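Annual report, structural modelling task.

Input specification for the NDP complex:
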Amino acid sequence: MNQKKVFMTNNKQISISEEVKSFLKSDHQLLIDGKWVSSSSGEKIPVFDPATEEQLAEVDSGNQADIDAAVAAARKALTGEWSRITSHDRAQLLNKLADDIEANFAVLSEMEVLDNGMPMALAQYSIAGHGVTLLRYYASWATKIHGDTIPVSPGGAVNGESITYTRKEPIGVVGAIIPWNSPLIFAILKIAPALATGCTVVLKPAELTPITALYLGGLIQKSGIPKGVVNIVTGYGETAGTALTHHDDVDKIAFTGSTEVGKKIVEASVGNLKKVTLELGGKNPVVVFPDADLEKAIPGAARACFFLQGQNCMAGTRLFVHQDIYQPVIDGVKEMAEAFTIGHGLIPTNDFGPLISETQRERVMSYIQLGQDEGAELVTGGETIGDKGFFVKPTIFSNVKGDMKIAKEEIFGPVLCAQPFENEDLETIAHQANDTSYGLSGSVWTQDISIAHKMAMLIDAGQVSINCHAAVDPAIPFGGNKQSGWGREFGKEGLEPYLKTKATSVVF
Ligand code: NDP
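The model returned the following structure:
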């Protein structure tokens, strides 16, 4: 295989700022009731840079007792000072937090790169473009959350002598469990709507990437947000996560992660019937019609799959291309895959980083082996690279069949599965595009407005983009159909799971 760029990680080129070094070295504890406290177990979890495999920090391993304390703090805060703060002031506090993130943008971006491995440009884009805007977006909603008045006369009341109104009340204590693939943004995506609606939060970051959430905790502590409103318990899913999802005093779990764990969370919620929203996996189709503008569709398809090294639930990992343009599209995507500059995200010219962990690299490599065993054609990639760091080359399989496991299962790595389609009707193409247990995202590439909208309607996913992939904006609702999840995040709809409606009827 002819890689255009040679992989070269020269760790000597990496320089970490003194501020980041000093934060990483500090004693990372749990944020409970406005104070940093040690975990009751005294155990620590090491945190590694996935590009160098060097230990960056160690954080506390929270357990049942710590979750109990954090939930108690969140419960107390829910009915304490926080409940008396006006919606205007809640908005101000969210905006203040956004200001503080902007003021610490460089440090947060650097830490996100070190912790997750993403390229610097992506960390900067995600923090400025998503994190800050999400906080400001939900800040602006805080004053606009209200119920209705309903013109009925219940209980035989005379018309005009009764009124019914609804109030939107905070759902209560929210347990937020987040993954490692975009750690800071997922923390903000849970905290922003929760605080806008007046809820309180216990956040459990992923054990692999807790650093920016802890730094965010420091900003929250100094922001004026009352103590106990946001509590952060680092720890393992099996201990801290399970304690949170089973907790009888938690009213809602907001989860992003794997479908497998999502199902466990549903089971855990049965005890007190807590509400659950789930943003789970995806195996998203990218459908390219023969009239597509290939200048846009080719880079669009490459980015759709390889963004965040494919460790992205919205990744467009199944590429369906009309047979007339199949070869030029595959050639073009291959050229782009081979042109990524791979290495440590702190080197600004690198645009493709490592996978998050050795486990994830092994998992991805096992799917790459499986694809070859299943008879798919390996067009490029298929190998790990470097002696240090969990790097896997962007990989393309061609002539993938719909019944292959690589076409059905979420790989969560840089592996694109391409297949041509003929002149079938749109329903047949959609049937192939929908032939997975997931339904999160998808995209359609064509100049034909009718095909574009018909196909968008036929794709069974929470989000379909036309001539772009995975359009993300704080105002655009996002979430999955089928086994990609329950509920929506972002946008006005993203507030609903944090609210409960109370109807009050008055007879005069
Ligand atoms: P998980 O779903 O295991 O982890 C997501 C979060 O859930 C983490 O904070 C994790 O904790 C926590 N968790 C794990 N087990 C439990 C549990 N029993 N109860 C409560 N919380 C729990 O994802 P992985 O990190 O293991 O990744 C595995 C696969 O999941 C990926 O390969 C990918 O397919 C998918 N995934 C999807 C994501 C998405 O955005 N939709 C994001 C990440 C992964 P901890 O990590 O600390 O153990």
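The first strand starts at residue 30 and ends at 32.
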